Recover the amino acids of this structure.
């Protein structure tokens, strides 16, 4: 029994949980070629890609649906998938397939039809061209269908507890379910937890937050959706206060002055949804939340919902036509922007992004701007667009962690500095990284090599053949 599992068992014992349910004789599930831990944007695309390339794939997801931050976290719309000119769609592949499937059932608007400076983009211009409005419920249905068609197996309500290690090689994972512990063997494990949980517990070096800012992490947020707010009502406020470059800035100053606005943000990010009276709202500012600590997360969830209520009260009080708006849903999990950064064979840095560098082993091309919340003070955001070129590349080496064999990472926990991760943490790049990781995992299984030994040139060629724009 490993040290982590003994500590976990000891902790549960203090809660009065019988040791018998934690027996070391917990049954193992059938071994799989690839196990993906986390069914969010990166994980689901990794699973689909690996399965389509012939691997037997299982996704382990602690929630009850796929999509992660895009479904459970209500993080929408999808940020840009185009280059900085707004002329070339960079992120295609499985991401574009998912979007088009949602469009076909009326659950999304394709990014080719969505331009910057509009209500779909919260009237932002820089870095917000060609976003993708979508319905979270439509995304759940589409991901269910694509995974079933691709042969992906999914185990919901399963929480990762520990890696199964053979020396420095991960050979599977242990999870906890309603039926107790289960052991799942794998040739390759993909960490798509967002927090680098698997890599960290397997012994891969990680950095928590920004080490140059005393381990500060970007503030969390509680996304929510509202309905019955006519677009004309919002546009009328913007017309009345043309000096505001962001939504409701003048009204928020008034609300702060009269004591009815305490959230430390000077504007409200409100993105129009697929329906003209429905909006995704991103305004809560939850500083000091550590997404790797349950107590911190718990407090953040409570504070987030309080800020949701405060925002709704503000809209109803100050925006004519908003008195009858409806709260459709709050996210079932906090929007976490940053926790661990797994240290890989290459650490993507700020200059890689701003200078538009494209390493030869790039498996993703994107143009997403550095979006470092809390990077300009408690309420401010450091936002920097690509300076040279029209895009930059994420190398395969950033998906391969140091010191641990048999493991790949995908999503916001990939190997990048805090500042660089602030650009690639959004959904389209995460989906693209997932597709790359899943394809590489399948190639590793087929070639009986470790992920570190996958030929990068062959991987890039395979991704291109699958419709990835690199």
């Amino acid at each position: 029994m490993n040290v982590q599992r003994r500590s976990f068992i000891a902790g549960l014992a203090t809660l009065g949980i019988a040791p018998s349910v934690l027996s070391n004789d917990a049954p193992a599930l059938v071994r799989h070629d690839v196990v993906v831990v986390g069914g969010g944007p990166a994980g689901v695309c990794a699973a689909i890609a690996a399965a389509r390339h012939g691997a037997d794939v299982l996704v382990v997801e602690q929630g009850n649906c796929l999509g992660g931050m895009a479904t459970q976290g209500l993080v929408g719309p999808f940020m840009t998938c185009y280059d900085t000119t707004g002329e070339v769609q960079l992120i295609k592949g499985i991401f574009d397939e998912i979007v088009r499937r949602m469009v076909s059932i009326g659950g999304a608007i394709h990014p080719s039809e969505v331009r910057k400076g509009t209500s779909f983009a919260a009237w932002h211009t820089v870095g917000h061209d060609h976003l993708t409005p979508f319905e979270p419920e439509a995304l759940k249905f589409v991901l269910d269908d694509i995974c079933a068609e691709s042969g992906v197996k999914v185990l919901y309500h399963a929480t990762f507890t520990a890696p199964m290690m053979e020396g420095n090689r991960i050979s599977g994972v242990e999870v906890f379910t309603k039926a107790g512990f289960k052991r799942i063997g794998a040739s390759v494990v993909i960490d798509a937890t967002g927090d680098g949980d698997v890599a960290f517990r397997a012994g891969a070096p990680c950095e928590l937050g920004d080490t140059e800012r005393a381990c500060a992490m970007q503030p969390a947020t509680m996304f929510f959706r509202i309905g019955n707010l006519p677009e004309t009502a919002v546009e009328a406020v913007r017309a009345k206060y043309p000096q505001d470059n962001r939504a409701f800035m003048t009204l928020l100053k008034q609300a702060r002055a009269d004591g009815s606005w305490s959230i430390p943000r000077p504007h409200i990010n409100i993105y129009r949804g697929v329906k003209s009276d429905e909006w995704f709202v991103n305004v809560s500012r939850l500083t000091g939340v550590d997404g790797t600590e349950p107590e911190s997360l718990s407090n953040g969830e409570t504070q987030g919902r309080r800020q949701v209520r405060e925002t709704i009260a503000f809209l109803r009080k100050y925006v004519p036509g908003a008195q009858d708006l409806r709260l459709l849903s709050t996210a079932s999990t906090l929007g976490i922007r940053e926790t661990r950064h797994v240290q890989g064979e290459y650490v993507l840095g700020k200059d890689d992004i701003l200078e538009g560098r494209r390493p030869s082993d790039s498996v993703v091309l994107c143009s997403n701007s550095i979006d470092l919340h809390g990077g300009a003070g408690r309420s401010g955001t450091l936002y920097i667009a690509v300076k040279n070129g029209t895009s930059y590349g994420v190398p395969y080496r950033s998906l391969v962690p140091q010191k641990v064999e048999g493991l790949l990472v995908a999503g916001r926990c990939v190997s990048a500095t805090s500042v660089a991760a602030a650009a690639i943490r959004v959904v389209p790049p995460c989906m693209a990284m997932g597709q790359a990781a899943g394809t590489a995992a399948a190639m590793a299984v087929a070639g009986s090599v470790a992920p570190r030994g996958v030929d990068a040139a062959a991987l890039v060629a395979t991704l291109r053949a699958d419709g990835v724009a690199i």
